[in-house]
Amino acid sequence: MEDLRIPTIVRKEAVTFFVNGKEIRAYKGETVLAALHAAGYGILNKSKDIGEGRGPLCGMGVCYGCLVSINGIQNQRSCMVEVEEKMEITTDETQTV
């Protein structure tokens, strides 16, 4: 996937994390949501009632649209957690709201 970050912004040091087993590059200080968005991930979980894909809405911890598993802990708001080296994120169909 193409990196969607703005190229003129100076970033901190790079970190590597994993999304559904795939290695992704991010930068210290970015939220998990920002790193996922930059890597092209739009749908992060599925609605419990009808199984429809869900993605982020507010980006500030209010809407629960960006829930993912982080290091095995389900239903974490990706907009509220900074990415860390070797972090493991799961965005599969088992994520429900």
Written overview of the protein:
With 97 residues, the chain is mainly beta. It has one domain (14-90): 2Fe-2S iron-sulphur cluster binding domain, sarcosine oxidase, alpha subunit, N-terminal domain (Ubiquitin-like (UB roll)), CATH 3.10.20. Helix content is 7%, strand content 29%. It has one helix and seven strands, in the order E-E-H-E-E-E-E-E. It has a five-stranded mixed β-sheet, covered by helices on one side. Strands 3-4 form a two-stranded antiparallel sheet. The protein is globular. The chain starts with 13 loop residues before the first strand and ends in a 7-residue tail after the last strand. 28% of the residues are buried. The mean pLDDT is 86.
What is the element layout, followed by pairings?
Blueprint lengths: L13 E6 L2 E6 L4 H7 L6 E2 L6 E2 L12 E4 L2 E5 L10 E3 L7
Parallel strand pairs: 1-7
Antiparallel strand pairs: 1-2, 3-4, 5-6, 5-7
